[in-house]
Write a structure and sequence with these properties.
Number of domains of chain A: 5
Largest sheet of chain A: 6 strands, mixed
Strand content of chain B: 25-35%
Structural class of chain B: alpha+beta
Number of strands of chain A: 31
Bound molecules: magnesium ion, zinc ion
Strand content of chain A: 5-15%
Number of strands of chain B: 4
Shape of chain A: globular
CATH superfamily of chain B: RPB5-like RNA polymerase subunit
Number of helices of chain A: 28
Strand order of the largest sheet of chain B: 1-3-4-2
Oligomer: heterodimer
Shape of chain B: globular
Amino acid sequence: MSYASAYKEVERYLIDKIHFSLLSPIEIRKMAKVTVVRPEIYEADGSPVSGGVRDPHFGAIEPGERCPVCGNTREDCPGHFGKIDLARPVLLPHLGDKINVILQSTCRNCGRILLPDEKISYYTNIYLKLKEKWPVLAETFADEVAKQSSSVSECPHCGYKQYKLKFIKPFTFYEVRPEGEIRLTPSEIRERLERVQDKDIIVLGVDPKAARPEWMVLTVLPVPPLSVRPSITMENGLRAEDDLTHALVEIVRQNERLKNFLSSNAPESMVEEAWQTLQNVIAAYIDNELPNIYQLSHRGRKQLKTIAQRLKGKEGRLRGNLNGKRVNFSARTVISPDPYISIDEVGVPEEIAKILTLPIVVTPYNIEEARKYVLNGPYNWPGAMFVYKSKQNMKIDLRYQRNYRQLAESLEIGDIVERHLINGDIVLFNRQPSLHRMSIMAHKVRVMPGRTFRLNLLDCAPYNADFDGDEMNLHVPRLEEARSEAEELMLVEKQILSPRYGGPIIGGRQDYISGSYLLTVKTTLLTKEEVSLLMAAANYKGKMPEPAIIKPQPLWTGKQLVSLFLPEGLNFEGRAKINAGELKCDNERCFFDSYDIISNGRLLMGVFDKNAIGAEQPENVLHYITLEYGSDKAREFLDNVFRMFIRMLEIKGFSISLREVEIPKEAKEKINIMVEQAKNEIQEYINDYKEGNLEVIPGRTAEESLELKIIQRLQKLRDDAGKLAISYMDPFNNAFIMARTGARGSDINITQMAAMLGQQTVRGKRISRGFRTRTLPQFKPGDLSPEARGFIISNFRSGLKPYEVFFHAAGGREGLVDTAVKTSQSGYMQRRLINALQDLYISYDGTVRDSVGDIIQFKYGEDGVDPMLTYHGKAVNIDRIIQKAKGE
Amino acid sequence: MPSKLREEDKILGHYLVPKHRILSLEESVEVLKSLGIKPWQLPRISINDPVVKILGGKPGDIIEIERDSPTAGKYKAYRVVVSY
Ligand SMILES: [Mg+2]
Ligand SMILES: [Zn+2]
Ligand SMILES: [Zn+2]
Ligand SMILES: [Zn+2]
């Protein structure tokens, strides 16, 4: 399409409603330009058979061909329908149920509905009224009327006796008469449907103007134009026809066979057989996966894709081409991390920037810039791919152009240059599965060498991305309207707060947390050189702060440095993540430095860890900065200060080794004693159980009680062992720091590395499967001891015994299966929810409405609160107000 | 019928049952006008709903339901009584 037509004001229409109805035989005949009577496709010379399924009257599709119907070439010929006159009528297979309902509720003689006149008109009245206001209810009402009238056994109009019908899907009907079951032929069915009167049929939910019931039985079959079923010419000159064409050929063949039988007065049984075959073939043409039919297939047994198969399923027209489609102006590649770009930037490889283009209209203000792009040509970044000369209405592809200089000079105001993507362009960035709003955000382009998209690590949380090979998609909005909408509404900076839970979803993880902890911890004192490095990383341009310590040498605290970046007037109070376990403390002047106090933008007490700067942590420092100082300030904070945290880690060095999870011999001995003790206690439980002396928990069997007691005791054992191991750890043990600050791992992980793995479970129970009464052959039958039922005493540091590895694998597999099952289930639920909610909107009066304006909620969320701007779901936060006041 | 009365009080007095009220014709018109809708565009409530039964609502009546909300204080919803 040319720009002229794209930018031209076109006449617009609003679709008011869409009406589905049946084609009448008259309409089919009227629109048909050719009648198909020959099953052959091509003559010997390769030209299409006249009166075949590729008759030229179906429309021009070859280049240069003129359509014999409308006289157009293939660009302008819309394609034309043809028809097949059926030798005998045939049912439309997907309407079997409706035919069944109408036949059952009307008289087999006079065609009236099997209810007295006054009832029919009364019900019709109700139906029409319902249809107006509650269309769904009207359908249920029609079903009810049909049920009532189909149970009548004698026609109230003509007095004829009525028989029950037996309907075998998709198109076989039997009438159950006293003398036996008689098959109804499509002709008989059509005759009966013809007798049904317009005024009667309304009450059964049929609009006679849109669909006379007898139209459900075909007498003439429309044949779609060639543009619907194009053939492909392969390089060896052979033609491959579309599946629909193959199916139509089969229909024509069977139809002609039936015609022959009829004209030659063949025996009734042969006519019957040919008729049923025709019925079957037409059913398969409409839906090749109907039950109880012979499926149409290629010679190689491959099933034909007929009309229903084109529409159905994930790859079908609806889900594959309308709900989701392949698009232009997009790119996809692997992502890799870059902490040195802003959170609202994305690194785009030059190769991609040279293919994705943006149209810019040449104005007096940018003509020189535009010339530069043209001069660079299509292969040098930043260049241009196309030039559209508006006066000549001509689009020039620079790839086939020699003289860029001449073209650049010929540029005029109003021309359009499709230039490469350059730094600062707005693009949409996306990672699947797109489960929430933040899965697609707008970024500013930063063109870079290399072949991967670069992403700031702080953006990993909203996309749920990591860099183990993840790929992401990029889309370029091309019109000004789209670009500004993306920038104003979708920019990363404007998505820091999540509407999911009213807190920041963007924020530090892993090294950012460790780094901020090490920087702000009490023991950290920094020399002038270190401070310079950190300030440079944070892009600080102000004056050096006064040192906290002057003698013997000037030293600065990390809290001082962080304070430089906190907005003035910010007050905050709260527990740090490390405020737990041994370090738990509510004292404002906490000795362990685990209670954060920020007063007037100065970090006075406490360390920065997950609770202060972490992603997905509502009501932390980041949350308040974003809410109270704006997302622009928050972005600045994220871009600068977080870089400093990483630099701190680089200065200090941070890694873990086996030493981190090594505990002293003394601790190991203590753990061994604890294990022995627990084993003995459990053996006592088992003995009690075997003697029948075990105290039974109410509502449980003896076995269950025993299991429960054992599990509880083993849980306690592992907890105790873990606590013991952790108590022996140096507070500056790196693994321990990560667990405490929330950077990575938990106490359980440390316990498993240093002390013991603990109980492995399958389906929430101790492992008991495998052999009949034991898990593995080295155990005695019926052994209920901890080791025999999947309790692992070893830890990862010292290594597992072979049977322990086996139990660990058994427990691990369950986790893998669970995640696989859960993702598919939640994906299905997500799709259903989206389909149900997609066209609800918040209208300007604050109500939530659906596509026809019906009310869903009288106030959005029943309180009118935007969760994105709340304090973890609360519209007002009294504590925060007090904090702010107190800090003054 | 003392037991019947007790049943009603049980329902209306239950802490999970919000305040229901049948609107007068004037009030109904006012509500519909302020929302710019026709009655059938409202959410519906069955005539068989226990509270509607007690209040004696008829199809077409509009019922105001006032709920307590931790975030909004009071939230008023309207429903049209239907016969099914
Ligand atoms: Mg990954
Ligand atoms: Zn044509
Ligand atoms: Zn009759
Ligand atoms: Zn303390």
